[in-house]
Amino acid sequence: MRALVLGAGGQVGTDLVRFLLGSGHAVAMADLRPAAASAAGPAMAALLDRYGAGDRWHTADATDATVVARLVDRYEADTIFHLPALLSATGERDPERCWAVNMESLRGVLDLCRARSSRSIKVIFPSSIAAFGPLPGVPGGYPDGVASNEIGLLPSTLYGVTKVAGELLGAWYAHRGWADFRSVRFPGLLSAAPPGGGSTDFANEMLFAAARGETSIQTFVRADTRVPFMHMDDAVRALVELAQAPAAGLTRRAFNIAAISPSAEELAAALARRVPGFTVRWSAGGDPRQGFLDSWPRVLDDAPAREEWGWHHQFDLDRLIDDLLGAIRSADAHR
Ligand SMILES: NC(=O)c1ccc[n+]([C@@H]2O[C@H](COP(=O)([O-])OP(=O)(O)OC[C@H]3O[C@@H](n4cnc5c(N)ncnc54)[C@H](O)[C@@H]3O)[C@@H](O)[C@H]2O)c1
Asked: pLDDT tens digits, residue range 289-298?
């Protein structure tokens, strides 16, 4: 694969770049921030040095179509991972920028693929559980096991609107034969890199606090909050496996992918079993992010991804927590 990773400096991008380089793929990267200021910190610059890829990191704006076109041509990219986004909580605070970054940069990439349609460039787009929203007239929201072809995509955040619109726009470009667009709806992602302003950040904050030995933390969610989560290693592997899946086997352009769905209280209890004295002070509700979380599916059905391109998760809750507590402590020790 000759990959161009846009938004390479974020929580997903830094681990995706590590995975792609480690798997022997050719990788070029772009982000508004330099490698050393990425979510992985100076470790990112060190990683690039190790692979001789330091000059393939470009501090650039993905909404500038001319810049992106230059990078696609220079590196003869056959796969573009489109990651730049303002996430759910940040996007509500700055809707204009959310639309520009999430939608305009995607449209620019798709137009670029159209202009080079003979090369059949793949565009891999992480959508989100935020593409779902409250079901009108259905208190309690979605039943558990929300399917990939669920049609009630009525998000309550602008972020979610850009994810639904991105899925639909990409599918239309694919239908016209202009871009090989493929998308996964990610659950909340957990990793050793700080998260970028989403509503599922409460779980990352609990993990970081427990790893650092903080025994009493305040969170912005209720104890019974339940949404799907996934270890970042599973998530980046999903992006790469979907990119590599033979087109003939795919019946759709957007797939649910799922792993675990612990409640916030179950997550806290699993941390307390490893960090003696770890306790969480729960919110009574009221934070706007609680409303977003309540509007998302609690459990996703990902049967089409499993059947059509062999998706499977590797991290259950216990393995995920053990791995990430160790990874956060190790990253802290090397800072
Ligand atoms: N992290 C999650 O839990 C999660 C869940 C579902 C979907 N996703 C999706 O995965 C993708 C990556 O998310 P993330 O968690 O890494 O986000 P993040 O905020 O950590 O990273 C986004 C990166 O994009 C960069 N960026 C922003 N505007 C840019 C621009 N104009 N040009 C170039 N770079 C720009 C930022 O500097 C940042 O490094 C997003 O599309 C997001 O919607 C993430």
From this structure: 999 999 899 9
Interacting residues of 167 by C-beta distance below 8 A, sequence separation 6+: 125, 127, 131, 183, 253, 254
Distance between CA 210 and CA 191 in Å, rounded? 14
Whose C-alpha lies nearest to ligand 1, atom 11? 83
pLDDT at 335 over 80: no
Question: pTM of the entire structure?
Answer: 0.95
Per domain, the residue ranges of the chain are 85-333
DSSP-assigned beta bridge partners for residue 82: 6
Options 3.40.50.300, 3.40.50.720, 3.30.1330.10, 3.30.565.10; which CATH number does 85-333 get?
Answer: 3.40.50.720
**For ligand 1, atom 26: residue with the closest CA:** 84
pLDDT in tens, 295-316: 899 999 999 999 999 999 999 9
CA of 31 to the centre of ligand 1 (A): 10
Helix/strand/coil for 44: helix
pLDDT above 70 covers a percentage of the chain that reads 99
Residue nearest to atom 22 of ligand 1 (CA): 10
pLDDT at 87 over 70: yes
Q: Write the pLDDT tens digit of every residue in 218-234.
A: 999 999 999 999 999 99
User: Cα(255)–Cα(306) distance, rounded to whole angstroms?
Assistant: 10
Query: Looking at the predicted structure, is the pLDDT value of residue 151 above 70?
Result: no
**Does the beta carbon of 189 sit less than 6 angstroms from any atom of ligand 1?**
yes
Residue 75 is among the residues annotated as catalytic for this protein: no
Atom of ligand 1 nearest to the CA of 14: 16
Q: What would the DSSP string read from start to end of 179-192?
A: -EEEEEEE-EEE-S
Ligand 1: does its nearest atom lie under 6 Å from the Cβ of 230? no
Indicate if ligand 1 lies below 6 Å from the C-beta of 125: no
| Annotated catalytic residue, options 51, 75, 159, 173 | 159
d(CA 279, ligand 1 centre) in Å: 30
